[in-house]
Amino acid sequence: MGVESPLSGHKTMVLGTSGMTVMDQATGYSVFADGGFADERHGITELLSRIGKVVYDHDEDAPKPKRVLSDKVVAEMNYMLSQVTERGTGRRALLPMARIAGKTGTTQDYRDAWFVGFTGNYVCAVWIGNDDYTPMKRVVGGFIPAMIWQRVMSYANQNVDIKPIPGLPDPLPDPKIAGQLAKAEKKDGDAVVRERPRILSSATTEFLRELSEALKTAPPLKPPARPETLSSL
Q1: Which of 79, 184, 209, 230 has the fewest CB atoms nearer than 10 Å to its CB?
Q2: In this structure, are residues 126 and 21 in contact, taking their beta carbons and an 8 Å threshold?
Q3: Which of 151, 139, 144 is nearest to 94 (CA)?
Q4: 83-115 pLDDT tens trace
């Protein structure tokens, strides 16, 4: 699943006894968000030369994603992770515009607090802790990390076409949940998410690109050989 941190083979490993970076957490959860396919994480999508020639294109040159989980396993995992946020410890991470799935995590003595989750569009991992490994004051994953995740993802999922989470056909949250979140935002002014500037939807952007290409390839118009007589009307 793309995790690069060394993992212990002990049975307690499933409880999180192996240390893991924030990047590894996001990489691992991206497999659930991507329908069971693992891809190489990367920060560069394209490189151009001084004259504009494409030297590297990630979509063309990087290894293709490989399937590591079946559709059945992905659907079951994503359903369970969605219930963590809708009925369990991750409810502070709920979004008004998209259904989410994720997991809270708290290590011994409150040294680490996690929330890692995803929508059908994005994956985000949040970690809270002290650099010197000292305990925090009873900070748990379902509190500050989930709230940070909610703020970041509320902004990221503005003005985009919301995609469904694999295995969960409806990309939108339960209407009751969305209504409750809207009421909570009105009561707490600090919790209101600052909306991004309005942009074109992806469908409109794609249409304009197709229109641009059509205009570039259209045959040139020929001016009339002589002036046309305009109607007096």
Answers
A1: 230
A2: no
A3: 151
A4: 999 999 999 999 988 999 999 999 888 999 999
